[in-house]
Structures are given as structure tokens and as C-alpha cells.
Specification:
With about 450 residues, this protein is an alpha+beta fold. It is built from eleven helices and 21 strands. The structure holds the ligand C=C(O[C@H]1C=CC=C(C(=O)O)[C@@H]1O)C(=O)O.
Length: about 450
Amino acid sequence: MNLVEYEDLVEEVIIDSDSDYITLHIPIHEYDISHAQLFTYFKEYTGERYWFQSKDGEFDSIGIGYRKSITRDKFKVQSLTSEKNELYDSIQMVPLNDGLSSRLSLFGGVKFDDKDTNDEWSDFSMVEFHLPVYQFDLVRQEVFYTIPQHSQKLSDALEELSGVLSGLSQTEPDTYERAEVSIIKDIFPDEWKRLVDEAVDVLDEESFLKVVLARQRLITFKSGIDPLFLLDRLRDEKDTYTIYYEKGASAFVSKSPERLFEIEDNHLWTNAIAGSAPRTKDEEENAYQQDFLLHDEKNRYEHELVRQSIVEDLKPYSSVIEYDEVPEILKNKYIYHLHTPIKVSLNEDIEVFEILKAIHPTPAVGGLPKKIAQDYIKEQEYGTRGLYAAPIGLIHENNDSEFVVSLRSMLVSKTSATLFAGCGIVKGSSSEKEFLETDVKFTPMMNVLEVET
Ligand SMILES: C=C(O[C@H]1C=CC=C(C(=O)O)[C@@H]1O)C(=O)O
């Protein structure tokens, strides 16, 4: 098909002289395009591509090329909010069909903290949000194509897009070789256990209640890790968010079970997730683990702390916050968590960056009190978290948004992958048990890489 039928429509569009960008928005049902075709066809955009898929698989956003990026070395709510609003105000949307339901979005995130390093995370700034050149939604079958206002005639842009779409649909996805593992190495495992023991000594039941301590596992390969291999493998586990985020020579990958928050029509949905037990293939054992989790004092206490803290953080932005007192079980492929959904009616005109600042890091990834735990992590934990346990997500054109806590994640650079996993430490935690729990939390990424220990 070609897009000639839209040409008359395009001719009628009057370009708003204030806009810096024009975004064409069209349906792509006819083309039947796959993720593998997209990442094969747009190879020259490597380092500027992402894929974000919601937990229920109902929503998917693939960005190709970073047309405009908002970047910061510090997380400053006001300046980020103004730049984001100015950017959206400078885009003229040109929807070329009725009934389009996808939304143009900025994709990006904020690093866990501002621990200063020149390390493996240097491809990513402290804060980054990207407006993509092409934004595909393969669930709803729509695409957004954003061009600078003065770059070309709208009809030429439409023709170009038409060429890209037919090129894409005829693309034969590249085949890939699975990279062979060279070394699997836990980073400072004994030191990590010692740190957990030290933290248990420092923690009490009043002034420092909880800290989440993470460790890393480095896997090196004999050759480069192919993005198409990762994309294929990321489809394996359902019921989690999927994040694949390329920047420069790095890719950050996450299969997170945890939504930080979603804002829609002035309502915010979030959840407390804390307290874990492994899930196995043995149904009897699984029933025991779930029952244990629901009744175990330590897990329930840890969960309660997380929930209370989230509710407190959101109080300044809302007068109505709803949740159940008793947590539910959240089931993932390899692990169970205690889980409490929280619904919040937001006051008028609350901006997404205000919420991000208030809620991150939740005690599920930081600790309590938040500031003391954050400082402890910054000073004591080995290495830099970067985007691990950080908020990553989408800010839509109408200001609705969805953010994930990027757990069960790894940083991939050419021939190596660094995996991250942590657990909540409270008074009475056992370093051996927590070590095993982090092993379980490495599993989703080990599985993506098809690596076994
Ligand atoms: C910090 C992680 O998990 C958090 C989320 C759920 C349950 C957790 C726990 O039970 O310790 C952790 O707080 C991680 O996966 O790296």
C-alpha cells in the first residue's frame, strides 16, 4: 500500500509557525511488521533505540532514533517540567486517521542516585528522556514519525514514511548467533555477605529500619551479544514489563515485575512490593511458599514499612488514597512477592516529575528512613546502580505516564553483561538467605542470556 490516500489531507494541514516539530501519526495494519524486522531495518540507529512493553502486553512502544533528548546531570523538577512542556508545545500533531489510540511519548529515566562515576554507566546521563524519530506501537499497529518543521514538505515526509514502511515489511530479519559464555563471576560475594551482616548490626527498630543492598554478577562472552538475540529472548517471560534501552555502546535490559506508578486522568496507581519467596516447578512447595509469605512476620513487617512509606510520600499530592490492609501474592515466573495495589486521586495540576521525585526510591529498592538508607547505599554498596532499580518509563503527550522500577535487570555492553539484584535487609536478616534470594533475582536475566551457573 502507499499513503497516497492521505495526500489530500496532508495538503490541507496548515503548519503552525510556532511549532519546531511535525509528527505524522498513521495506522500500519497493512504492513505486518515485527520487532525483529524493525531492529534489522533500523540497524544504523543502533545506540538510539528502545522497546518498552507493559506488563499485560497490551501496550508496546518501540522508539527509533532520538530526535530530541532532554538530559540533565541533576534531577531538578522545575527545569525538567518546563523543558518537557515546551517540547510538547513545540510539536504539531498530524493524525491521519480517525480512531487512532496510541499516544506520542517521551521515553527515558532517572538514575538510581547521583553517585559520581566515570564507569560503565557513562553512556547514560543522570536524567534522560527521548522523543523518538519513529515511535511504533505494534500492539495497536500505529506509528508516529517526527520531523523538524522546516526540513521538508509534509507530502515528501509522507512519501518517505511510506517508503520506510514498505521497506520494513519486506525486510528479512537478520539471523543471529548466540554468544558463547566465557566467564561468569559474582562480584565480591563474600564482601557483600559481610556488608549485609554489618547492616544488620547497624539497623534497629526505630532510627534505621531497613536498607536494600544489591550485588552484581558479571558475565563475559567470547563474541558480541546480538540485539536481535536479546529481543527474541525478552519475549520469554510474561507478566513482567519489558525494557530494552540502547544508548551509545550500551543497552540496559529489564524484566521488572514492579510498576512504580501509572498516571491516567489525574489518577495514580502504584503498589507496594516487598517480601519474596522462590517459585519452583513443584506445586506443593509453591503452595507452602505462598502461605509462608502471607504469614511470615519478617516479610509482612518489611512489606508494611514499604506500603506506609509510599502512602506518606503521596499524601501531599492527594486527599484520597485507597488500599487493602492485607497484601496479595504477586506471581512471577521464578519468584513470589507480597503486593499491595494503591490507588490515588491526584490534586489538580500535579506534574509527573514531582511524583517521581517524591516516590523514588521506594523502600523496596532504597530502605527506611529513605534518606539514611540512600546515603548508606551510596557509601557502602560496591559499584554504581546506574539504571538498576531506577524509574524508567514513558511520559505521554497528554501528561499521563507510566514508570517501572527497573529490577531484574542488566547492563549489556558489547561482550559483557552486568546483572544486578538486591534485597531488603531488616534487623534479623540472614546474609546467607539474602544471598540466595539475590541468586533467584538474577534468574530472569540469566534466562534472557540463556546462561546457567
Ligand atoms: C531489590 C530487588 O527487589 C525488591 C523488590 C521486591 C522484593 C524485594 C525483597 O523482597 O527484598 C526487594 O525489595 C531486586 O529485585 O533487585
